[in-house]
Amino acid sequence: MKLETFGWDVDGDGIAHAVFDVPGRSMNTLTAKAVADIIAISQEVASNDAIKGLVISSGKPSGFCAGADLGEMNERSGGGKKEDLSEAELKKKQFDQGFSLNKTLRELETCGKPVAIALNGLALGGGLEVALACHYRVAANDNPKLQFGLPEAKIGLLPGAGGTQRLPRLVGVQAALPLILQGESFNAEKAFSMGVVQELAPSSETVDKAKAWVKANPTAKAPWDVKGFKVPGGVPHRSPGAGQVQTMANAMLAAKTYGNYPAQKNILSCVYEGIQVPIDAALRIETRYFINTQQRPEAKAMIRSLFLSMQELSKGGNRPAGYPKTEFKKIAVIGAGLMGAGIAYVQAKAGIPTVLVDVSKENAEKGKDYSRRLVEKDVSRGKSTQEKGDKLLDLITTTDNYDDVKGADLVIEAVFENEELKAKITGMAEAVLDETAVFGSNTSTLPITGLAKASKRPENFIGIHFFSPVERMGLVEIISGEKTSEETLAKAVDYVLAIRKTPIAVNDSRGFYTSRCFGTYTREGMEMLAEGIKPAIIENVGRQSGMPMGPLEVSDSVGLDTALKVTRATAEAAGIDLQTDDRTQFLAWLVEDQGRVGRKAGKGFYDYNEKGRPDQLWPDLNTRLEVKVDECPPELKQELKNRFLVRQAIEVARCFDEGVITDARDADIGSILAWGFAPYTGGCCSYVDLIWGIKEFVAEADRLAKKYGERFEPPALLRDMAEKGEGFYDRFPPAGKAEKVAA
């Protein structure tokens, strides 16, 4: 028996030991070769009379298995060579391919010999499914990083190797559904208390414990193969309690997903149908739902963006090649307000010595208080220790003296959005900086090329745009000005990776990429408001389209006064007169006449409670606006959803057309992480490429432009792509920047 991803030996007692250890990788995944090895192992155990049982373990200290190899899976589902098959032949081929691992694990489970697994770390997705097919599971109780889970739903898939059938049979439908639907992970202690694992032991003893169990249980069977087995908590159609769980799950799913996530709907159906039949039939049901889900455009989009592209960018996939990696020994943050204080915290948390500068030592200390509060919260919740918290705080030095900035590898300017003030700060900082130091401006709208005019070294000047709250938002937008060097961009990417966030790289423009495109969502909400559509309809449909908030609530969160200021500044820069613009005049009335500036004041489009949560839409909105549409039939709902999402995607296309963004991965990840563009679409580019298709999208944009105005007009780039049948990932693939960083 030749194995490529498993080690293999059989001891004197006839106990076989298969050690999962994919060569050249720090973590095991279920590749096609690994599946082939599992098939071979299963056949060997079943057919070799000298083998009395099997123990499976991992040769990786990181854990057993992180799940299926999604890159490989994505390539397989993407097509390949077309075959001349009938529909029935194609369906059979797809089923056989999808069922192969399920079939193998079931054969292992029923081989007539005991099978145990020793779990030393991660066992996620397909890794946990392999474990569930074993008769006995021993988990390490001394590894705080150990996690179990079925996270497939988070990337638009469902577990396809028995997870939807074995887990409910082990722990009951009620306990299993949240874990599968939400992709929740859990630790060894919870796994033991639920019955997912049967024994806990130190990592060094898990294999011996598993072998001991195999020796003591020569006739082991899975619980569901024992006559008289009953599902914990009952089966939905036979048990009133279990039936109620099913009904509640349906209602909760509809309320949370609005029908946008096919995987969750299919998971619910899969569990409900499968739990009512014997396990062999149930596994076939699971495979059919898995294939249906895998082939949906939402799954392809989510796998591509939320897993593959996210992984690539989080490793510096958009970093210019050929420059040595920068290690940051000291970074200065100028401006100790909310943004600067948050930036200082994430730097210190990453172990980087940080100088926090403000106009006075007192102000700088107030900025450091932000870090103190976060540390206190983590310590009180057991997420950190006082010793670790003190070390973090010791890394932040507060000052009002620019001499303390000397020696910094990087300066992050995070002062008020005022060009004159930023120019002054630039000069003061550069006076004490080394020639190789990078100056980064944390600005959300001001063009970097203009700000760089105040710099003596514009090639070292770059935009580093954080999102609020800094410690919770995982994205950083890096903006290159006209004179920013590739080396400076490489250093900025290194910085973002050093503070454990995901960078996207864009070029200069007013509003850059994220702020510019994000604003189209809120403005489309204002357009609908001006058309007389009832505010509640606008908000509800905004959420139903997949956005995290309705556009009016988003406007409140950003600040209506800020929105008004940006609108006026943008119009002034473009030479546009807003005196006759009804939308701007309405916003001015709301802010300047009514004092309703948004969530921060407790009143905007919404009225807010003392905890800052929206109580209700402001009833007096209608005194200024006439409501002409107060009902929302399905066809109107779809029209409004299309308007919200197509409008944003059109602006993204314009950014590509103008060279603001050049990599489809940056665009997709930026749209999801920065402003919450419907995650089920995979981001704005994937929404066009996969959910619509380029030709269909352009046709819909043309229809909307004819009906609602030129803001929906596709740019020439989109028309050219439609004519050639190209998607964004065809026209704007990764730019070949992901080469290994020079040592």
From TrEMBL:
Record-linked SUPFAM superfamilies: 6-phosphogluconate dehydrogenase C-terminal domain-like, ClpP/crotonase, NAD(P)-binding Rossmann-fold domains
Residues annotated as domain 3-hydroxyacyl-CoA dehydrogenase C-terminal: 511-608
Keywords: Fatty acid metabolism, Lipid degradation, Lipid metabolism, Lyase, Multifunctional enzyme, NAD, Oxidoreductase
CDD domains in alphabetical order: crotonase-like
Pfam families: 3HCDH (PF00725), 3HCDH_N (PF02737), ECH_1 (PF00378)
Residue ranges of domain 3-hydroxyacyl-CoA dehydrogenase NAD binding in the record: 330-508
Catalytically driven reaction(s): a (3S)-3-hydroxyacyl-CoA + NAD(+) = a 3-oxoacyl-CoA + NADH + H(+)
GO molecular function, one term: NAD+ binding
Entry keyword annotation includes Lyase: yes
Domain of life assignment: Bacteria
GO biological process: fatty acid beta-oxidation
Pathway(s) this gene product operates in, as recorded in its UniProt entry: Lipid metabolism; fatty acid beta-oxidation
Family label: In the central section; belongs to the 3-hydroxyacyl-CoA dehydrogenase family.
Designated name of the protein: 3-hydroxyacyl-CoA dehydrogenase
Natural source organism: Hyphomonas pacifica
